[in-house]
From TrEMBL:
Glycosyltransferase 2-like domain location: 21-145
Organism: Agromyces allii
InterPro entries, per the entry: Glyco_trans_2-like, Nucleotide-diphossugar_trans
UniProt-recorded name of the protein: Glycosyltransferase family 2 protein
Pfam family of the protein (one): Glycos_transf_2
Length: 304
């Protein structure tokens, strides 16, 4: 393991860091404690540095991290400018061979980071590596291994999801949960990135306020010749909690659908006016429908 030198504020001599971990928080007081406790309990054998970038949380997330986790390098932002912007703040500070972009609603298991770093060390062609992500009920998080969405696969995926089924090629059913395989994209909740590849590809695209930035990043890694790989032999837990659980609030629902169009226009559009208009109309029609359904559900819950 070749570790670069980095200087921490207040230290007289440099320390060797092989893994930088970046976690972006917003109103994540309880989740971030579970995440950080598991991260430090199951820390890798290589030296590790942890950044928490807080997006102006309205709760006491910042105070909890500052008081309970003195080893964490906390960056408290004064505004919430989105997931990509916040991650990029810390990505600009990284100096290690590997960077783990991690969500606060994750929980690590023993040996996972050592295994994945070992895979990266043995195969220099891998730019991004993800693992098997299990949701709160123990099932696979479908976004752990994905194909890039096209209008057809997206339509099939959302249609099946609406009736409680899966089967779209978007979720790579040809790749088993325990497999080790190249995929188009892994989940942004857990992405182990090679810093040498990051230098080629660049930071997260800040047009994505939330959602879609991981798909776009993976597409750009592919474009620069780096492999994106799913490793189902080790696990982490994606609890999918906090402010994005259940139905998305209106602002997040808007950005979810807007991100679909940004990705489509950058990576899937054939520049056919009619097709682009149909896709755009379909996306905004879905936004209107899901927003209306969410509003009705909120009214019903309050009436009860």
């Amino acid at each position: 393991m070749v570790a670069q030198k980095t200087q921490r504020s207040g230290e007289a001599s440099s320390v060797s860091v092989a893994l930088d971990v970046i976690i972006v928080t917003f109103a994540s007081r309880d989740l971030i404690q579970v995440c950080l406790d598991s991260l430090f309990e199951h820390r890798p054998q290589v030296p590790m540095r942890v950044f928490v970038v807080d997006n102006a949380s309205p709760d006491d997330t910042v105070e909890v991290v500052r008081s309970k986790y003195p080893l964490v390098e906390l960056i408290a932002r004064g505004s919430n400018d989105g997931f990509s912007v916040a991650n990029n703040v810390a990505l600009r500070l990284t100096s290690s061979p590997y960077v783990l972009v991690l969500n606060p609603d994750t929980r690590l298991e023993s040996g996972t980071l050592d295994h994945l770093i070992g895979v990266m060390e043995r195969d220099a062609t891998i730019g991004v590596l993800g693992c098997r992500l299990l949701t709160r009920d123990g099932t696979l998080d479908h976004a752990a291994k994905r194909s890039f969405p096209s209008p057809t696969t997206a339509l099939k995926y959302f249609a099946l999801k609406a009736i409680g089924r899966t089967g779209s090629n978007y979720t790579r059913p040809d790749v088993g949960e325990l497999d080790f395989a190249d995929v188009d994209a892994v989940n942004g909740a857990f992405m182990l990135v090679r810093s040498a590849a990051l230098l080629d590809v660049g930071l997260l695209d800040e047009r994505y306020w939330m959602y879609g930035e991981d798909l776009d990043w993976c597409a750009r890694f592919h474009r620069e010749g780096w492999r994106v790989v799913y490793d189902g032999r080790v696990i982490a837990h994606h609890l999918k909690g906090g402010s994005t659980s259940g139905r998305r609030p209106l602002r997040q629902n808007y950005h979810f659908h807007r991100s679909m169009l940004v990705f489509y226009r950058d990576h899937a559009s054939k520049r056919h006016f009619i097709e682009d208009a149909l896709v755009s109309g379909g996306v905004w029609a879905r936004f209107a429908t899901t927003s209306a359904v969410a509003s009705v559900q909120r009214v019903v819950r309050r009436a009860r």
